[in-house]
Every structure is written in C-alpha cells, then in structure tokens.
Write a structure and sequence with these properties.
With 209 residues, the chain is an alpha/beta fold. It is 44% helix and 14% strand. Strands 3-6-4-7 form a four-stranded mixed beta sheet. A two-stranded parallel sheet has the order 1-2.
C-alpha cells in the first residue's frame, strides 16, 4: 500500500467450499471495494475462463496472477515488478527451479513428477523459461489477452502453453526465483488422469509449435 503503485486485488471464487468467498467479503469491508474486488462465479468453470473473467474487471496495465491460498507468497510481487521494469518484459514468471527458488511441503513423489514434467518439457519444447507449470506470473495486460485468444489447453498444460505461445509470438519473458509452499488446508490432487492428460497436451504442443 505504501509502494506508490495503484493496484486492485480481484478475487475469483468458483463456489469453493473452503470459505474463500466469506474471507474475501471481510477483506472487502476492511480495505474497501475499490481495492478488493470479489467476482465470484456459481460453479467451477476452469482456470482459463477465470483468467478471462478477471481480465474483464482489471483496470491496470499489468496483471499479476497467483493462487489465493498463499502457496504463492505476496512478498515476491515487488520483485516481479522490479524485474519487469528492469528489462521491460512482457511476462515475468515465478520459477521454483532457478536461483534460490524451491518447493516446500511436497513429498518426494510429487517433486519427482514435477521435475520430470519440467525436464521433458524443456527437452521437447525449448521454451526459454525454467518453470513451465507454475502459475505465479506477471503479464502485460494486452499480452495476456492475446495469449488467452491463442491458448486451447486445459489443466496443467494450460500454464505451459501460455509460455510456449508467448515465445512463439515473440514476447519477452523474465524470471524471478520463488518459494512455493504447498497449501496447509485441503489437498492438491495429482492422479494418473492428470499425468496422462499432461503428456497428451505436451505431445500436442510439440506437434503444433
């Protein structure tokens, strides 16, 4: 609030049963509806449509996208902004796989799957960014709009396609090392179906980019 940067926080809640909307309503009362914009939807409609829904209400030139469960820590946002200004980047992506970035709270299996997926993606797609499946990113607003028009993937592949399409369209990407902390409450589900759909999506991107 003391950075001199004009900002708003847009919270998209897809009818989650964990009380997100109630917490957001309390924050709205404390900080005002000009800073906290709660934009709920009746049911779970997917990440891509949540991005589009959020963009409709965003008034700034840049958009930071992050998870609301604090697995993405707000303390990294000033670093994203500094990085963007430093290189005038179109996208600044948080990376768990460079510098002092890392993951906390995952078991060995989950870490191996994530590392393996990232390695496979690097080999096949040569994206020029070190973390393809993370979603903590800063986008220039018009760049995010263009990418949303191009991207067709869903699930885990969606974040990967955003970076691959960005490279394809000649957008510049900077990276900031982040610490990802797995959620304390609730579960992140990563089953066989998700892994199969990831591999299918990866091969589709390899064939079409």
């Amino acid at each position: 609030r003391f950075s001199g940067i004009d900002f708003e926080i847009i919270i998209i809640d897809d009818g989650s049963p964990d009380g997100t909307q109630e917490v957001a309503e309390q924050l709205e009362k404390i900080y005002g509806s000009d800073k906290i914009l709660l934009r709920p939807r009746a049911s779970k409609l997917g990440l891509g449509t949540a991005y589009i829904h959020g963009m409709k209400h965003a008034t700034g030139n840049f958009i930071v996208i992050m998870d609301a469960d604090l697995s993405h820590h707000p303390k990294f946002i000033p670093e994203f902004i500094r990085k963007q200004k430093e290189g005038n980047f179109d996208i600044v992506s948080g990376t768990r796989y460079k510098g002092n970035g890392g993951v906390y709270g995952w078991d060995l299996k989950r870490k191996l799957i994530s590392r393996g997926a990232n390695f496979l993606t690097q080999v096949l797609l040569r994206p020029g960014a070190s973390d393809l499946t993370g979603s903590f990113r800063l986008y220039r607003k018009e760049v995010l709009q263009k990418l949303m028009e191009k991207c067709v993937s869903k699930g885990y592949v969606f974040q990967m396609e955003m970076i691959v399409r960005a490279r394809q369209l000649g957008y510049t990407i900077g990276e900031v090392p982040i610490s990802f902390v797995d959620r304390v409450y609730g579960e992140s589900k990563l089953g066989g179906n998700e892994i199969v759909s990831f591999l299918k999506g990866l091969l589709t991107l390899f064939a079409t980019t």
